[in-house]
Amino acid sequence: MDYREIKTPAFILDLDILEQNINAYQESAHKHNKRLWPMIKTHKSTEIAQMQSNAGASGFLAGTLDECESLQKTGTKNIMYAYPVADKHNISRVIELSKNCNFSICLDSADAACLIDEAAVNSGVAVQYLIIIDSGLHRFGVQPQNAAELAKALACKKGLKLIGITTHPGHVYAGSDPEHVRKCALDECSALKTAYEALKNTGFACEIVSSGSTPTFNNEVGDDLINMVHPGNYVFNDVIQIANGTAQQSECALSVLATVISHPSEDIYICNAGSKCLGLDAGAHGNDSIKGFGLVKSHQELSLIGLSEEVGKLKAGGLTKLKIGDKIEIIPNHACSAANMTGYMYGIRKGCFERFITVDMRNNSGKPLTNFG
Ligand SMILES: Cc1ncc(COP(=O)(O)O)c(C=O)c1O
Asked: What does the alpha-carbon distance between residue 292 and residue 169 come to, in Å, rounded to a whole number?
């Protein structure tokens, strides 16, 4: 079936492009002798994770414990959770994961670490952790020169085991030119080097030195010290990656197919895909260089100037042949947010529907077994 016959709105995933993206990053990681543990919060799909693993990914970085548990249930051995936890239910989940696979967590404070340590000691496990280093995003993380201080404070904890350091140069998304991308990649490498040296000089070894973002991937993959990389968005790419020079439109795998349902005035058209398909992101972490809420393929004259929940408002900036009933295809500004809006995608190849790709690892997609656990 021609994919344009699919009911709208629909999430369309071009499988050729998806596979090309997965293979290109994997080959580069392989060439540079780096472990690629992709960040899977981008797609939240066990099927896409399996494709990454088949291509050579030896583990995964996850953005939620739901993702960690889904991966573990499907037999994934190496799972890293990107953020700290600090409530008793999530601490128990971390301990269960530590019992069942090669699990690690990322921490940036003694307070959260001590909460985990206490529960881990009671359960007889040592939870593996990496120290999060702030390389410029100023979200999580200790300053690089303070990494050894945290390691020292936690050295006596029997329920914790330091295995490395990690960072995410998310400040790369605050700008949109290649020079800014290069600067952020330098930030991540130098922050990790400073932290690594500080730890080494105090007697702490780092088995893992990890970092990742899609825009900085090409720089970090060639760094001498970094031995594990975590790009996520690269599987799909999106308008943000086009804007910062990381990807071209032909490398964007995910789009939303919509139908024009109204033409209320001369240059305004309404389509049946809104914020509940595309998300409202202009750009991750503060990029305001992106105009509009997505890129309409093959219609340079159209701007997606507004989104309500279920409909989008398009403005024609010149002559257009668009009419009610036409199908349009929109590349989301931020594919990670868009993919989280659906339970499945239509996997297409050469313009024809091939198979559904399920998005089965979304937060709260699995109910807890007990009342509040
Ligand atoms: C901690 C962490 N690592 C890696 C990534 C992947 O970055 P990207 O989506 O730019 O590939 C993210 C994304 O937000 C992240 O939060």
From this structure: 25
Task: Please report, for the domain that includes residue 277, its CATH number.
Answer: 2.40.37.20
Final residue of a domain: which of 236, 270, 288? 236
26, 28, 39, 287: which to mutate for ligand 1, most atoms within 8 A of CB? 39
Span from the CA of 173 to the centroid of ligand 1 (angstroms): 11
Pocket of ligand 1 (CB under 6 A): 39, 42, 61, 82, 168, 170, 212-214, 230-234
Residue whose CB lies within 8 A of the most ligand 1 atoms, among 137, 213, 333, for a mutation test: 213
Fill in the DSSP letter of residue 36: E
Protein residue with least CA distance to atom 15, ligand 1: 168
What type of residue sits at position 206? C
> Token pair of 259, please?
């139908």
- Rounded to whole angstroms, how far apart are CA atoms 140 and 231? 18
Domain range for 289 is 3-9+246-358
Is residue 363 in some structural domain? no
pLDDT band at residue 283 using 50, 70 and 90 as cut-offs: low
What does the DSSP assignment read for 16-67?
A: HHHHHHHHHHHHHHHHTT-EE--BGGGT--HHHHHHHHHHT---EEESSHHH
Per-residue pLDDT at 373: 52
pLDDT at 371: 58
Confidence at 311, pLDDT banded by 50, 70, 90: very high
At 131 the three-state DSSP class reads strand
pLDDT, tens digit, for every residue of 100-137? 999 999 999 999 999 999 999 999 999 999 999 999 99
Over its C-alpha atoms, the chain yields an Rg (Å, rounded) of: 22
